[in-house]
From TrEMBL:
Gene Ontology MF, one: histone deacetylase activity
UniProt cross-references to Pfam families, sorted A to Z: Hist_deacetyl
Pathway(s) annotated for this protein in UniProt: Ketone degradation; acetoin degradation
Any single biological process term in GO: epigenetic regulation of gene expression
Family: Belongs to the histone deacetylase family.
Domain Histone deacetylase residue range list: 22-312
Alphabetized UniProt keyword annotations: Acetoin catabolism
SUPFAM superfamilies: Arginase/deacetylase (SSF52768)
Listed InterPro entries: AcuC (IPR003085), HDACs (IPR000286), His_deacetylse_dom (IPR023801), His_deacetylse_dom_sf (IPR037138), Ureohydrolase_dom_sf (IPR023696)
Protein's name according to its UniProt entry: Acetoin utilization protein AcuC
Keyword RNA-binding attributed: no
Phylogenetic placement of the source organism: Bacteria, Bacillati, Actinomycetota, Actinomycetes, Streptosporangiales
Superkingdom, taxonomy of origin: Bacteria
Length: 387
């Protein structure tokens, strides 16, 4: 399907580093790019560089006083309670502004590539920092690069943008920025806020004209239930909204091995979701697709394989799940992390799901979550919430 695709990359993107022991370790994107390179994926997708987002660009989303405060933390390395930097989740470190602005700049470069037509699809695997608020760092996120990419596109004159977030955590920062803006449809599929940070993302959070959409899934949800929920909500809304550009966030912390959450997806279920979003980009947005990384805290077994699949999908040449991981990459993993690397690009699962056309089961917590979302927003888009 893809005509042209880009990945935005600079080795300096790994300087977004909260320090030893922090879950958001930059080695995860380092190992992703190494795996994609050794599997030949980077031979099939153009790699371009990036520059840090300017202050003017950052103020499309973030408050000027917050940006200045982040710069002071960046220079001193000292905490600042007013910024949210200096907490367990968001430790202060020298260079935090520069590292965060570069990630934002990478997502802006992806947006620019798609808007200007130099690429049909563009990916920033280091991005997806969806919790950052206009005036506060939150949930490992300092500057909200997906929101900045969307805001930049709106500034160029795009009238309808859809954002789909498949991270296990609610995409609260992006929702907050565009909550009252009917030009932006935000859809987040996440673990229920009753059991997971950030405690938001209930179906009744519907925003302007029903353009904030939240599917709050129960802990323990696996491939079949997650895909059932995705297909019951995302395709109908994207078709009804008809975005000019699709922006997606691909946090892979929904995986069963992730240490910070409680969903039970496999790598194969996640790969299936990436393929579905690729198809929907072509069906509903003329193929214009901007994708970012996001959460993901199983640094060796999950993140590199998941996002290498994402890059291959964007390139239009998906990887056969049975493909072995290259021996050179395995050795690099052992040297870099001391861990045992995965041997293939699959968890050995074959995700299947029943769609909602056969009816729903009110006793099933996944179906209850799906129907809560459909009842909350489908009528606002002229859609029948009933299957």
């Amino acid at each position: 399907m893809s005509r042209s695709a880009r990945v935005v990359w600079d080795d300096a993107l790994t300087t977004y580093d909260f320090g030893p022991g922090h879950p958001l370790a930059p080695v995860r994107v380092e190992l992703t790019m190494a795996l994609a390179r050794q599997l030949g994926v980077l031979d099939k997708i153009e790699t371009v560089g990036c520059v840090p987002a300017s202050d003017d660009e950052l103020t499309m989303v973030h408050q000027p006083g917050y940006i200045e405060a982040v710069k002071r933390v960046s220079a001193s390395g000292l905490p600042d309670a007013g910024t949210g930097l200096g907490t367990v989740d968001n430790p202060a470190f020298k260079g935090v502004h520069e590292a965060s602005a570069l990630i934002a700049g990478a997502s802006l470069a992806a947006a620019r590539s798609v808007w200007e037509g130099s690429a049909e699809h563009a990916v920033n695997v280091a991005g997806g920092l969806h919790h950052a608020m206009p005036g506060l760092a939150s949930g490992f996120c300092v500057y909200n690069d997906p929101a900045l990419a969307i805001a930049w596109l709106l500034r160029q004159g795009v009238e309808r943008i859809a954002y789909v977030d498949v991270d296990v955590h609610h995409g609260d920062g992006v929702q907050a920025v565009f909550y009252d803006d009917p030009r932006v449809l935000t859809i987040s599929l996440h673990e229920s806020p009753r059991t997971l940070f950030p405690g938001t993302g209930f179906p009744e959070e519907t925003g302007a004209e029903g353009t904030s959409v939240n599917v709050a899934l129960p802990a323990g949800c696996g491939d079949a239930g997650w895909l059932r929920a995705f297909h019951a909500v995302v395709p109908p809304l994207l078709r009804a909204f008809a975005p000019e550009i699709l922006v997606t966030q691909h946090g892979c912390d929904s995986h069963a091995l992730d240490p910070l959450a409680n969903l039970m997806l496999s790598l194969d279920g996640q790969r299936t979701a990436y393929a579905a979003l690729h198809r929907l980009a072509h069906e509903t947005a003329g193929g214009r697709w901007i994708a970012t990384g996001g959460g993901g805290y199983e640094l060796v077994q999950v993140v590199p394989r998941a996002w290498t699949h994402l890059l291959a999908e964007a390139a239009g040449e998906p990887i056969d799940p049975a493909t072995p991981t290259p021996e050179g990459w395995r050795q690099y993993v052992r040297e870099r992390t001391g861990e045992i690397p995965p041997l293939t690009m699959t968890d050995g699962r074959h995700p299947e799901f029943r769609d909602l056309s056969g009816g729903y089961d009110p006793a099933d917590p996944i179906d209850r979550a799906v129907m809560a979302t459909r009842n909350a927003v489908f009528p606002l888009h002229g859609l029948d919430p009933m299957p």
